[in-house]
Design a protein that fits this description.
38% of the residues lie in helices and 18% in strands. The chain is α/β, with parallel strands linked by helices. The protein has two domains: 19-45 and 296-394, Aspartate Aminotransferase, domain 1 (Alpha-Beta Complex); 53-293, Type I PLP-dependent aspartate aminotransferase-like (Major domain) (Aspartate Aminotransferase, domain 2). A hairpin with a 3-residue loop joins β16 and β17. α12 (342-351) packs across α13. The longest helix has 24 residues, at 296-319. It is globular.
Length: 395
Amino acid sequence: MSAGDSHIMPTYNRAPLRFVRGEGAWLETETGEKYLDFGSGVAVNTLGHAHEKLNAALKAQSEKLWHVSNLYQIPEQEKLADALCDASFADLVFFTNSGAEAAEGMIKAMRKYHAENGAPEKVTLIGFAGAFHGRTLAALAAAGNQAYLEGFGPAPQGFVQCPELSLAAVEKLIDEKVAGILIEPVQGEGGVRDVGTAFLRDLRALCDKHDILLGFDEVQCGIGRTGKLFAHEWADITPDVMAIAKGIGGGFPLGAVLTTQAVGSVMQPGTHGSTYGGNPLACAVGAAVMAEVNNEAFLAHVQDMALYFRQHLARLLEENSDMFEDVRGRGLMVGLKCKRPNTDLVAALRDEKLLSIGAGDNVLRILPPLNVTQDEINIAVTALEQACAKLRAGD
């Protein structure tokens, strides 16, 4: 290798930024430049950077015990599982390290449920166009994005994708081999599309009608991101199984599969496992995140900031109709549909010291920390305005 080449595998198109510290919604580079982080590590940094209570939880646990494996009982894991179940539909939890692993666990649990209940032929899972469930082969097959599957050999079987968010279209795909339906209540990578509360309710009724399972992927839209602890709560329905990650660890790698008693109880010893999943460090931080996020005042703040941001974005779109088509998403999971390549906007915003993320369907994705302030939103809106003006001037 020549000098200057990296030993890091080139799987990412990385921006030329090297951050060394952060505080709240702000990041600082090696050279001392400060950036407003409205990407939140792709919806991970729920409470921003270096949050006092997360730091304290990690430090306290690190001085006691890091890892023992799931060969033993883990009190920190039990505490977090209790908190998640008390706050949700779930009766049982399996901890993972990532969203992809949580999606994989959800897929296995949905199939195993039918196998253990006399219907082993029920293996097919119905997903939706534009979905993203992670980078494992099964998660990629569930989403059906051929570009991500290319070059990796035969994809796992037993997955079909519905081309539209239509109940009639979904029902056409249901046969005697279907085990359940997988959906993100708000698609992230696919373009920040809110699938709508009515559609989620219809899917719940459809699953009940056909005796199949409903699985939600809330890896990106869960843990307060939409203004409820879980996005599906807006529809006033519950799934049978759900995958979460990202925000639950607040920056520490952590995910989970949440299930009803009926689904989770089929996952007996030997059916699934994870060496690191739910270790004391991760669960101590996850419990601290839950303690902060899972209360009415905090979630009300998310809703208030989301409304404030939307009001400013409405004006921004009106004044920059040559740049944007519409605003998408829910809560502080925001997407701006672009009229020019979203990569142009991401780069222009980076020049204005605002971090954002691209998404599918040419969408600019904005994911501020959930404890964001009005002043920080004002700074972001100004950066958006300046970026649009400079792009226009350069045309």
